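User: Sorry, what's this?
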Amino acid sequence: MDSALKNLIKVSVLMPVFNGAKYLRESIESILSQDFSDYEFIIINDGSTDESVEIIKSYNDARIKLISNEKNLGLISTLNKGIQLCKGEYIVRMDCDDISFKDRIKFQVAFMDKYKNIGASGSFYKLLRNNKSLDFNFPVHYNETKAFLFFNSPIAHPASIIRRSVLIDNNIFYKSDFKHAEDFRLWLDISKHSDLANIKKKLLLYRVHENQITGNLNLSFDKNKSLNIIRTEQLEKLSIYPSVEQMILHTTICEGTKFKTFSQLVLADEWLLQLTLKNKEKLIFNHLYFQKIILERWLRACINFLGIKKGISFFIKSKTYKMINLPFKLKLELLISFYNSWKRKN
């Protein structure tokens, strides 16, 4: 083996920090205590004005490489700077307020080493809000992950691992004009060159709190604009050019929010049926998994508007349900899964 290859770092952990002092120690220590050691820990201070830098400097660990931006560049520019600084075969994303479980990197590296077709992957995670936790799962199989990408981001950004060569070889970076949906755009760009997937295991504690960017309602306009561009591009793959009304329907389905009127729910049935038939014709996405994702979205929409019993009844009688050719066993599993989920929440 070439001596240069021997000296390659396996993993670069990339953590941007902006005024993250409150939870920073927990986040740093969750990486330093990993049961995987072949990594560099690149922490980029993006113009913090709190005690973040002092906290980072308090750790005497050679794996930590502190980089400080001269001024606040923002998340996207800081992440792109980080990609160029990373030397590892894989880039593991980490936010300064989350906690990686002890075996996170070990499991993610083993997964990426095994499946060379995967350019980026994530994991299930546990969300923590107001001292209450909730488990979040994502599609696992790469065909299902790609189908999920049609509607939403299929990988939790702070739980992700990325094959650095896919980024460098294809000149893929985070795009500044997709503010607050930069990860969704990144997965879409990576999916043009390799597959995406998730590990069926919780590997991260994702913390939601009042200071997060994602929790700032003033930023919703930029995020919605970015998501609208991404989703329109996805629809155009199926040769669908939506009207304003259709885009409202599609966005409501993507976001899993409640329709305002029953007539919108009826129109959504027609819309999802159209998507299914277009994909059957063009086979942009694996048709079995695309149908599965369509049914999941449709069932959620029905239950959100009508409640559990009336929603399931309406769902079973709908055109979309009757037209989609999934094995009855999969349809039954979907119904049982949603019913059990509803029972846990109520």
Notes: The mean pLDDT is 91. The radius of gyration is 21 Å.
